[in-house]
Amino acid sequence: MTTDPGDDPHVRLLLGAYVLDALDPEETCRVARHLRTCDSCARDYVETAEASLLLALLRAEDLGE
Fold first, then answer.
1. Cys-Cys link to 17, which of 1, 5, 7, 22 (CB 3.0-4.6 A)?
2. Cα–Cα distance between 54 and 65 in angstroms, integer?
3. Which domain of life is it from (predicted)?
């Protein structure tokens, strides 16, 4: 899903994949560049990264049925 940054100025939809290192190199660079200049997306990135870390702490028994 490579797009011209001018077509889509924000990267929120890519943040989950970015946190999980699941983007192709071009998209990774695009998101990294954008995060350096957009406080709003940078805040969303921090929240996404924190959520990912918290989810990694869950154990199967924490989820219950």
1. 22
2. 19
3. Bacteria
Cα–Cα–Cα angle for 19, 16, 22, rounded to 5 degrees? 65
Q: How far apart are CA 35 and CA 47, in angstroms?
A: 13
Instruction: Answer whether 0.85 is exceeded by the pTM.
Output: no
Tell the residue number behind the tokens 């969303």, with chain if given: 44
Q: Which residue has the tokens 């899903």?
A: 1
- Confidence band of 57 (pLDDT split at 50, 70, 90): confident
4-37 tens-digit pLDDT: 444 456 899 999 999 999 999 999 999 999 999 9
Token output for 27: 């998209």
Residues 34 and 4 sit within 8 Å (Cβ to Cβ): no
